[in-house]
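Hi R.,

As promised, here are both runs. First protein below:
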Amino acid sequence: MGRINSQINANHPYRKKNRLIKYQHRLINEKTQPQIAYIFVNQAVFIILFMRYLLSVLILSIGYLYPSELSAQNIPFTAPGNRNPIIPGYFADPTVKCFNGTYYIYATTDGNGGGLGPSQVWTSTDFVNWTMQDMNWPTTHNYWAPDVALGNDGKYYLYYCQPTVEIYGASSSTPVGPWTPLFPDGKAVVPNYLVPKVITLDGQTFRDDDGKYYMTWGTWGIYPGYGCGVGLLNPDMKSFAKTAQIPNTLAKDFFEGSFLFKRKGIYYLLYSSGFCEDETYRVQYAMSKTGPMDGFQFGKDNPILATSADGTIHGPGHNSVLQIGNDYYIIYHRHNNPHSGGGYNRQVCADKLVFDADGNIEKVIPTHSGIGYLGKNTIPYPNLAYQKKVTASSYYDAYNPEFAVDDNNGTLWKPKDNSAVPAWIEVDLGKLTTVKSILTQFEYATWYYQYHIEYSADGKQWQMFADKSANRWHGSPAVDVGNVKARFIKLTITGTEQPGLYKAIWNIKVFSEGNVAVMPSNIHHAPKAEQYVQKGLLIDLNTEALQPGEIINSWKNKGVLGGEFKADGKAPFTDFVAGKKAVVFTGQQSLRSAFNVPLSLAGNNSYTICFWAYAAEAKDDNPILSWANSNEQLSAATFGYGRNRDFGAAHHNGFADLQYSRNLPLAGKWHQVAITFDGTFEKVFVDGQINNQENKMLFVKLAEQFSLGKTQGSPAAFSGAIASLQVYDVPLSDTAIQRLYNHVKQEPVSVYLDAKKLPYGKLENWKNEGSAGGVFKAVNGNPVVADASGRISVCLSGKESLVLDKALALTGDHSLVISQFTAKVPKNEAMVTLTSSNAHNSFGLNNTPTALTGQWHYIIKTFKGDTVKLYIDGQLQSTTYTRQTASGSDSLYIGSSRKSIPGFSGSVTSFSVYQYALQESEIKTFTSNWQTKLHSPVDTALYYKQQPKAISPSLASMEAGNQTQQSNLQYMYTRLINGVPVSQSDWQDSPYYLDEGLLADHRYEYTFKIKDNWGNVTGGSPIGTITTSTAQFNTYADEFNTKQDFLLAGTSGSIWDERIGKGDKQSATVIVAANGSLKLESQGTSWDGNAPYGPFIYKNVKGNFIAEVEVSDVSGLAENKVAGNNDAGLMVRADNQLGTNKEQLLQNGIFPAWNVGNLLTNFEDGNRRQTNNQSAWKYNRYLQIQRQGNWFYIRTSKDNSHWVDLPGSPVFRPDLENKTLQVGLYQCTYGPGQAYGSFKNFRLIQVKQK
């Protein structure tokens, strides 16, 4: 079946080709299908990520490719008349049955993002001419690996599976339904683990010679002790008389897709091994002469079916077997040609099975020619279009128009683009002839296409043969009838059910005689498709009209959609960053479009997104723009600037995610990024050059608006700067992307300094954010960064200077802009100096008595030709003229360049050099903006929302007031002892502060201050005082020095109240404390709502608390070798009944697999959200959970002193209000492997209640 790999794993919703499942910093809602983004865990399964890793390692050393002489590839896959694939379209996991002379193919509906149905069946009486029709059941989201059996009672029984790893059943009086579920309550026929150590999936029935029915099933049977399930069905066909396991020691490499049949007294179990997504997928078999439930031995000549040497028969597997007389045929799926991305565009093929004299199955010779007719040809008339001359509106790459007339279900005509513009193909029949019927096989049989067919005698004058431009019927083939004389037939496809679907066809067939196929009516009806057209440049955002420091509550869109982006909560701001004016996001801000996302970006539609981005530090998940809000596979559209090895560039949920190449340094440098998608290939360009590309199909489900700066529906947010962003609903060409990169204007600001970015204290270097780059270095002493009259400033005493460490040419027009403060009457001091300036500092800027003391001033000096103008606070102060010119290689100083010239004594908050002379209108605007920013960050006196208090002998918490939802305020806390400052925090966005490293039984004082986005800063808040006296705490500690087997003896005599691991729905192999360590060990356990639950030792706690522990060891740590999905750490849990999936818990865990490292799990009544820090084996081993009311802080530490919140912390859980919680240590494996976690120095601290 295969999709278990990508969808049903409890811990990893999907894989990326053979790069494995994405388990990276994602949020996923268990009630829905997998999303991108964050790790999500659907009970549906627990199939383990490690399984994929282990299997991939094995596959690297085993190449299951047939030699070319065995693959019969003398006939290429493009040869006209090929009979493989046997049906047109993407279908997988085929079961073929023959009932009453009619062949039926029951198969997974593939190529739609995850086997999403609808349920359908193909019928034929000759095995060549097939018709598809809907079935009424199932109507579930997924429809995987169906099978139908004709019971001894004359009823037909349909079985299929879902990613919940269960098999369901229904019955009917016909092979095509209508179907009635076997259990009215929808209960599964085969629940997961009905047979121990057999994961349920891919059920297939077998009728023995005595009339008894058996079923085989299973997936991921590669683990030690695992294998394939088999059961003897009772006559009711929904329960079992007995069950057993066929172990993988006999059915070697058993993975999925079992099929049982009997020949000449020998039972054959065929099954698939390897990855269904790639070339390793193959068919193997085992034989038994004993019976269908035991006695199996691994077959000779395995694998019997595998990828061909030329790769055109690629990943064959998940087969059924059809017996016609003494002949046996293997019906299997393989990947389409050319191979689509992800491996989920599979097609059904058939070849002959051959046995040797001893009954061994010989290697199958896979062909493109197929097996042909197995019955009388139902259309024994010539196809007038076969291999005739064709022309088309266009074609994409190698998808030639000739493929539409080659009677080959493995070749496709596809137009050049997937736009809303109609596509057409014209067939020249060669002569005027009668045309009575036209059969069209569109690419997707389960979606409708809108089209019309015209005919002509001369290719010039056209008449309508069939007008289906309003069609909403789906199926295959589409049949249109008439009775005309024509030489030319023209098919024009005007629309598709799915947005962005290519208007492609497998075959068009034209007949002049005979009966036509019946078009079955639809059971599944789709809504009318909305109409849309591509408009080109939809969004165009740039910073030309924005001023540095400006809060961006609204960002005007200059694209065709118009409108604007508005702040969604906190607003970003404009600043100069590394030479570009940009809009800055700190992970706290986002913007949302005031206009809706157009339909031209839905589904598989094409697009281009282009942006200039900068990030000081590389983040794993760093989303910039999103226009979808869906958890389903391939349905998301988030584009970012992150290092995640799967979805760093584009996040679509699943194998279609796209990353930047690993050697790209994202941090500390501006890059132009362009991501294009043409409906087939998604490409990433960096700085005009191709960086990565992948083949894929998307099913984007639109959000209402665009989100800029965050992923919709998740906490992931952008940290960095954006200088420009464009979105097109067309794919730009490679050369167009290169032109965009080459035609970027340089910012006309060569120097830009802003003191608000500097740390307090002596200043050594001040980075120039202007286009000239470089840094200003301190000379003749160090200026000091300090608060001056309510602003963070660089303070000079008149002796110190700062000089740019690179030459700056100011020979043309330019302007100097500075914001300054002086406390005393200024003399003729040099504020800005060029080394070529004369004694009067003609090319620099002096502080003059014109500027009043005791207040901030905004001074601008412009140089235009020989005219020099000086402005103070927007008012023209003087106009002078000079015939001198500055040097072309000046050194630029803040302060004096010469000891003979007095330096500036005062404070500077900002300084800029513009490479042109500012106009008076600009000067007025700049000054006005500057003046509006001169105010206190807050309007009220500072106060504590939460007074400082000790929450443990080493930790204190507090929270500043004076906060608003929209403000971009930052907070700095100072710790004092007896009024003397001893430490200071960094500026932080959160008003909540945790002070660490305190000493027990000490007294501390705290004050805080606030700054805003413009560098305005408050004074200190009132002092708050705490004591860390140990007498005020209840501390429960266990250093695990006392040997105790908690699993056998329970928790009596310890600090613990109870343990989970022994009893109903729970399991553990070890819960033992000894020698300073607690070891928790288990096998096949979970903490996702599924039994059995892993070990958990806990204390019942009510009220606020802090719990800490060191995870001293986990399985595989010594070798840095992943041991399955081992998960161990701290847990907080409500006392709920086990196994109800109504868990209310929070976990701070260690999960080394998939580079996760430290993992936060937030599980609430079926919704399981997880975030992580991508630290892998470099995880922080000290874990902490703090409860403060309904807020839970999930933190980690490298040194047990400095604590850092995990992504997603704090977590708000009002459902746990006033509840007594189980707080303690847990472990589980999320899979059949055995693993452990070891812990040291647990402690739980609560403030005593007064």
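And here is the second one, sequence first, then its structure tokens:
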Amino acid sequence: MKKTIVYIFILSVLCVSMAGAQQVLRGRVLDIDTGSPVARATVTVKGTAQTSLSDADGRFSVPVSARDTVVFHGVRYDTLYLYAPFGREDIVVRLTPQRTALQEVVVSTGYQTLPKERATGSFVQLDNDLLNRSVSTNITDRLRDIVPGLSFNTYGNSALSIRGQSTIFGNAEPLIVIDNFPYEGELVDINPNDVESITVLKDAAAASIWGSRAGNGVIVITTRKGRAGSPLNIGFNAGTTVVNKPDLYVRQTLPASDYIDIERRLFEEGYYDAAKNSGYRPLSPVVELLYGGQADPGRIPEIDREIERMKTYDVRKDADRYLYRKGVFQQYALTVNGDVKNNNYYASVGYDNNRESLIGNGYDRVTVNLKNTFRPFGERLQVTTGVYFSNNNEIRNNPGMTGLSMSGSSSVIPYLRLADDNGRPLSTVRDYSREFIAGAMDEGLLDWNYFPLQEIQAADNRLVRNNLRMDASLRYLIADGLALSASYQHTEVGSERNNHRSRDTYYARDLINRFTQVDGGEIKRPVPLGGILDVSVLRSLGRTFRSQLDFSRQFGQKGEVSAIAGFETRFSRTDSKDFRYYGYEAEYARNAYVDYVTDDFPLYHDSQRRSSIPNNDDMDRFTDVFRSYYVNASYSYDRKYILSASARLDQSNLFGVRANQKGVPLWSAGLAWNISREGFYGSDILPYLKLRGSYGYNGNVNKSVTAFTTAAVSGYNMYQLPYATIINPPNPELRWERVQIINLGLDFSAMDNRVSGTLEIYSKRGLDLIGDSPLPPSSGIVLFTGNTADTKIRGLDANLSTRNTTGPLKWNTDLLATVVKERVTGYEKEAPATGGLGYIQSPYALPLPGRPLYALYSYSWAGLDPENGDPMGYIGEETSTDYTGIFADTDLDNMVYSGPLRPTFFGSVRNSFSYGNLTASFNITYRSGYYFRAPGIAYSNDYGLSSNSAAYAERWQSPGDETRTHVPSVPAQPDGNRDMFYIYSTALINRGDNIRLQDFRIDYRFGGLMGNKWFRNMNVYLYGNNIVLLWKSNDLGIDPDNSYADLPFTFSAGLKLDF
């Protein structure tokens, strides 16, 4: 009994002692991104006085008890809360840097790197985390909605614009710089996983160092490299994106029943008789049935039943099933980097495989990136080499819905069927009537039927593109603060598109049949049997050499000078060849001879017409040579006053002789004042305040014009002598386009950096832009193309970041806003003779002084005539339905300027949340201040069938309808002018303002205690894009940025491992 009591007593003591037992927790605190130690991190046992600081190596020790919570906090790091790992004495804890902390950001211009704190220009620096927030195999997609002033255009000649467009006919795309060299290849060749950061240069002080190529702004891409002193790091990324099928029902089209009713009406009026009498022109299935009933009245009940069945069909249902699928994009990347004995290295291999939403289309890419930096004598000498290679393969075999339209019509017959009930492909009407096809096949011609689904299987349209970049640089430190560097880059891009249309394709069978001649049962085929192979080959070669002197010196305790000066030469040559093989047999790689000379082959379907056999052979070569001299310097005093200046002189074979000889440089000057460092400044509201301004000139090169006489050879005149037409006379004064830029900026932070931001206003004037100007008729030349146009842009960029909550749950907000107003200020070419008519109906941008380049003009709308539903306009002050008179009366003064086609106010609001290792964010975007023209119905020729618009049901049908609709009545006789007036009137103009939930992202980071001997970090993410259009200003159900189809929702999932 005593023993039992003793045992119970001992056990109780042990239990009590264990409940309150303590141990010393030891470990290291590391940066989760770099793996470097975090010194002076605070380690606190929550609810106790136990506290420790990590040393220079990140090591710490603190006594803990079971169930204690340990709090880790470092300056400019997110706080981490962990349960005490009782029983473990040595752990590794990894802290995440605060992404919104006010820290020294280093920006790159492509020629030098400098702290943003010392910059006078307009820079936007995007780090790796922000770039990798979105998921895409194309690096440009990752810039969407995260850069103030950067717009993605749905209208115009440039996909991207930085602060508007300062050119009219020139290249409007920003200059792309990758690892300090201009890049002219396809951005889709760049693996986003290799990108470390991106800097966007927006004003003269930031971008003028790039001279005559910086007028549209500059995007500087810096790829990843090994870090000096870094241990071996191995990373692996894997992600999959699923893309929804496009919603084919978004655009409301004419129902099959209404479509067929119109076809019946047109048939009864004899509308199709001309096509029927031609003997070959295509007729829709319903019209062919109606003619069948006309020829054999006994079949009419059967035909009526068949037509009633057709009214229940919907081609979109078959298209959704047989033409489209869910897209699947896969992305993988493996990286290795580190430093060994003064040699830091980086290597990566990437693979992307995109199975696109159109069945039969796809894309894959393999990339290899190797970088090495060798320091044989420490920092005195640095040698850097790099090799980048990408192989891209693209397949385009499915044209989608566009491949279903009948010849002569832009719309798709809504009751078509692509396959029968058993899934067997069906033929659809294309270029010829079924009766004509049957007769041709009876004479021995190839099957002339068009089977859309078989076309996808038979097509073989492939593009292979290889991109190779090799660069080397040497940097020698001559003395403290003085370094000399030399850089060289060699680029080669080769692409080849092979579009093989085998004999089974409709294209080959149609071309063979079209030129077939049948004479007394003998068949002659000028276009030989077999396939048709179109080959397009492009080869591009580039070489760039740069020599540069870098100087940096501190004078006294407060003065600091930084300067660069250099020389650069650049050569590029592009060769392209196009040729065609007839009678091609892929198995034997052989083709047949074709007579291209004869130009009067009779066509089988219309023997009165003559034609030559199509010949695609072509050959071009373009050579560009640049030579440049540049200098850039900045002076900083006490980090309060910063002065910068730069100049660049460009010479090129693209410019005229005199322009090269004049040597007028493009230059900039900037000034910054850090007010918060002044002794008199002591604001608690805005503890950090910096003013900056810049002024200068950037340039832009237009390769569409030359300083030499250009002419077009036109064959032989009436005297059988060769002649040519001069396109442009010689222009020794031809020079680069100039863009004058004024930029004023304000940088600020408040509330212990919980609120920070940037506000910039700017003015851009495009000078000496390439434009057209009239010449005296006596010169023999109507127009002269040269430096004759001007534009002006004014705008505002704003960026506001807030840390709304701190502690375990963090909530940050980033607001971006851009205002941009563009207008043409000078254009010498006179308005077209048609006056307003030319501006309203032109599909191209026509410069008009005082208006934006991309503007929307319309006819003034007076409503519908209450008696017959005709659209009404104005002649003078009177309403009228004399459309010819309205066109003649509409000039530049009385046409309606509806507004710009591009947004003038746009931006985004991104909210980010984090709790422990879990982070989430979503982005809301907005676009405003622009207009679009909604699709309208046209009754010309076929009473609205070609428009295939559901607006037909909203048409005016009886007096009083003019109060509820603007859709005109069906006219008694087709009138093209009537349709043209309605389509281009203000009745169809709508504001494009919209707000959308663009994307969301959720991450969970398995770091800290999860870091073990196998991996340092693991991150799992979910990402959704194109979520939902929250609001739009129009009530038509139309997405103003995607009027014909909504962008499909995409969902991505992936992981990132750091070993």
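A quick note on the second one: The chain has 15 helices and 51 strands. Let me know what you think.

Best,
J.
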